[in-house]
Amino acid sequence: MTTFLLRRIALTLPTLFFVSVLIFGLQQLLPGDPALALAGENQDPAVIAYLHQKYHLDRPILVRYALWVQGVLQGDLGESIRIKRPVLDLIREKLPVTAELASLALVIALAIGVPVGIIAAVKHDTAVDYGATMAALWGLSIPNFWLGILMILLFSVEWGLLPASGFVAPGESLKQNLLTLVMPAFVLGNAIAAVMMRHTRSAMLQVLSADYIRTARAKGLGELRVILRHALHNALVPVVTLGALEFGQLLSGAVLTEQVFTIPGFGKLIVDAVFSRDYAVVQGVVLCTAMAYIALNLLADVAYVLINPRLRP
Amino acid sequence: MTAETFDAIAIGADRGERPWHRTMRRLVKRRAALVGLVVVVFFIMLSTLAPIVSPYDPLATSWAMVRKPPSMVHLFGTDEIGRDILARIIWGGRASLMAGIVSVSLALVIGVPIGLLTGYAGGIVDGTIMRLIDAMLAIPFLILAIALAAFLGPNLTNAMIAIGVSQMPVFVRLTRGQVLSVKHEDYIEAARAVGNPDRRIVLRHILPNIIPPLLVQATLAIAAAIIAEASLSFLGLGQQPPNPSWGSMLNTAKNFIQQAPWMAIWPGLAIFGLVLSLNLFGDGLRDALDPKADS
């Protein structure tokens, strides 16, 4: 197990290296003098000279890369030009908002996707199965920002049930917090629910035709017990690990959802940064998402081996 | 044995039926996939014939017709500066379809050769390139596209480049996996034994055999690219005003949701309809191309 873990961790090192090269390389896409672009609206020569010095723009690119990585490793992601604060602080401030939204979305996705997937598999090739499969395809094809607008139209404008936008911190009022987040979380969870449903359905179909399920039935167990205890238990392994890979989808979706519902999270941070040409913030956000993805992938792989004894070395 | 007859033996011989015919026969049986295809063709025709079928100039504003609900004069209503929404939907389809086709072509043109190379060469070439691909896959698709669009500058061309580059890793992975799975098949070994050079083996023997999964993935990738273009335009990073695009129309519509809800209905319905149809067609194509499925 230890060797597996060490080998798996060693494998992420080159990936991390290339991620850093890619993100550093983004700067090179800027036309002309990066200092001019980084200075934004402010074209003061003193500021530009300061930026030249701060980012070592007069040094060779390899030296600049090394200095940048050195900073990142010490937790220095640069400074936001717009808000004049360290990027890391901004990320720390916005991350909990998106994390709450994403967790709620994941709960909704699991609560819809897994049961529907089980029912579709059990009722394989019936109208119920076709209906569920079709619903999943709808869920995957509907752009989530449009779904968000439609929900605002229905629940806020027409019926006045839920707030159309904004965010209240859970510490301030948990009830208000959940009221503002229920629509965005549903919108974000919708597409993931569709993916979960597909995974659960195919995993259950595979498991249900296995010999040990026939054995369980043969020894006279009730159908419900066979499905929930014996089949689901094994079918959930790939569903859970594949779920970890939906993290990217969840974050991409959060960017759009936060924009629709004006929620001050991670996604809003990167979009606002793009428009104010706040490149250090863009780089910081991309770096954090990539590292989170790599870490989650690692955890999913390890969990997969831990849960599945056949894969244990 | 010449290489040509060898190809014929390797590919054909399924009860005398050509794979292409078998695929078509199976596809026709799938009602949903056919409906999808018809809708996609409809959208393609609508946007190619935009100058003829569009009822109005998509850029013509009219202060007398600001935010008018759907009527016989303006079937889909008008927007916040009096432009006809139907005309903008028809012309906006061009941005969506072009983004879908151009970015996926870009992803294919870069991704497939890299996948062929890494899969066939193996060793250190494979190891290095795949770690780079892993790094690209570690950045969520839309976040990577946003970052690229941010540094390249916001416009439709850069959005298409950003989407294409972000989709490329998927095609590298798929191509590589397919190459690895057919690389040691008997017919490849045979082709090598006859003395074919590597280039010929890869292009004439491996590539034709891995086209079906690539075709399916490309169809589904076009659907994803269309959503991605709409997303970037919705965020203001794609098609720039006043040129129409479904995503940017929704972005404006969001601000008038109370006064003019129809502004938000049509562009979303268009994206949804086109993407759903492409997904239906892609799913049907996958089933029809699957050689293991019973016919």
What labels describe this entry?
heterodimer; A: 313 residues; mainly alpha; B: 295 residues
Q: What proportion of the residues of chain B is helical, as a percent range?
A: over 70%
The total strand number of chain A stands at 0
Shape of chain A: globular
Helix-and-strand structural type of chain B: mainly alpha
Order of helices and strands of chain B: HHHHHHHHHHHH
Rg over C-alpha atoms of chain B, rounded to the nearest angstrom: 23 Å
Short structural summary:
The complex is a heterodimer of chains A (313) and B (295). By secondary structure, chain A is an all-alpha fold.
How would you characterize the overall build of this protein?
The complex is a heterodimer of chains A (313) and B (295). Chain A is an all-alpha fold and 313 residues long. Chain A has 13 helices and no strands. Chain A has helices at 2-26, 34-39, 45-54, 61-73, 87-122, 127-141, 144-158, 174-208, 211-218, 223-244, 247-260, 266-275, 279-307. In chain A, α10 (223-244) packs antiparallel against α13 and α12 (266-275) runs antiparallel to α13 (279-307). Chain A is globular, with a radius of gyration of 24 Å. The model of chain A has no long low-confidence stretch (mean pLDDT 85). Chain B is mainly alpha-helical and 295 residues long. Chain B is built from 12 helices and no strands. Chain B has helices at 3-11, 19-29, 31-48, 50-53, 85-121, 123-138, 141-152, 156-182, 186-193, 198-235, 246-253, 262-289. Chain B is elongated, with a radius of gyration of 23 Å. The two termini of chain B are 32 Å apart.
Break the fold down into its secondary structure elements and pairings.
The complex is a heterodimer of chains A (313) and B (295).
Chain A: H1 2-26, H2 34-39, H3 45-54, H4 61-73, H5 87-122, H6 127-141, H7 144-158, H8 174-208, H9 211-218, H10 223-244, H11 247-260, H12 266-275, H13 279-307
Chain B: H1 3-11, H2 19-29, H3 31-48, H4 50-53, H5 85-121, H6 123-138, H7 141-152, H8 156-182, H9 186-193, H10 198-235, H11 246-253, H12 262-289
